[in-house]
Design a protein that fits this description.
Layout (H helix, E strand, L loop, with lengths): L21 E3 L2 E5 L1 E4 L6 E2 L1 H13 L1 H6 L3 H8 L4 H8 L6 H15 L4 E2 L3 H11 L3 E4 L4 H11 L6 E3 L12 H9 L12 E5 L2 H9 L3 E5 L5 H7 L3 E3 L5 E5 L7 E5 L2 E2 L2
Parallel strand pairs: 3-6, 3-8, 6-7, 8-9, 9-10
Antiparallel strand pairs: 1-13, 2-12, 4-5, 11-12
Length: 263
């Protein structure tokens, strides 16, 4: 599940970069589809995730394995819960347990989640343009469905969730599957025609390894980490991303990227 990199991270505060560094000129790029991470990219459930893992650290798992919640949070962001549990409590590392655990999270902590600035407008535009897009997340389907419902965000036609891949991010399997789900694979450069939206280094590496272009939002990680992971563009949040229909009638989408980090 996408969790904060530490208990102190919050949108934009993690960048430690002056706003005037996000001043790159606008540019436009044409894509056949968009794949977006969920937590930290479309929504910010940092407070909910912190409460979730702090509670888990206090229950039987934390007492038995002497788990520090800060240690969990420092490595959990962008990773699947089942992968975290395999390290700290293998007996609970089952999909039945993880799906039920994550189904409850929006129900218990729904008031702690908010949308990332610009996310709602972007998703509405993608729907209006009938742009092929999908969510590719380290969360399970019950978690994604719960957050979309509580925040009243448009669901995509396709999703790639934690339980549908054998390896989590940074492995490229999830984004390679996302490209296929969009129905635009089959050409050697298919992945290059897909834009990935991410906030975490693990996700950026997964998108790049799958052959996609990656736009990173500096909502949960320092700009230096996003650059080191290989992001093609870095912006503060999704208010810097606009879309319009292509002019060739082939269903492509023109993405305008504004206020890019300049470093």
């Amino acid at each position: 599940m996408a969790a904060s990199g530490s208990t102190t991270l919050s949108p934009r505060s993690s960048t430690s970069v002056s706003k005037d560094r996000f001043s790159g000129p606008a540019s436009t790029h044409t894509f056949s589809g968009i794949l977006s991470d969920m937590d930290g990219t479309l929504i910010d459930s940092t407070n909910a995730i912190v409460k979730h893992w702090e509670r888990k650290a206090r229950d039987s798992i934390g007492r038995e394995y002497n788990i520090d919640p800060a240690a969990i949070l420092a490595t959990a962001h962008g990773r699947r819960s089942i992968d975290v549990l395999q390290q700290i409590d293998p007996s609970h590392a089952t999909w039945a347990y993880v799906c039920e655990l994550e189904r409850q999270l929006p129900l218990k902590y729904g008031h702690d989640a908010v949308e990332v600035p610009g996310a709602r407008q972007l998703l509405q535009s993608l729907d209006r343009l009938s742009t092929p897009w999908a969510i590719v997340t380290s969360g399970t389907r019950p978690l994604v469905d719960g957050w979309l419902r509580i925040l009243n965000l448009s669901p995509p036609t396709h999703m790639v969730t934690a339980e549908t891949v054998s390896k989590g991010k940074p492995d490229p399997e999830c984004y390679a599957l996302g490209v296929r789900k969009l129905g635009i694979s089959g050409h050697p450069s298919s992945s290059e025609r897909v834009l990935v939206l991410e906030d975490a280094p693990a996700g950026i590496r997964a998108g790049k390894a799958a052959g996609c272009r990656v736009l990173a939002v500096a909502t949960t990680h320092a700009v230096g980490e996003l650059r080191a992971a290989g992001a093609d563009w870095i912006v503060e949040d999704l208010r810097s991303v606009g879309v319009r229909g292509g002019e060739d009638g082939r269903g492509e989408v023109v993405v305008e990227i504004r206020d890019v980090f300049v470093g």
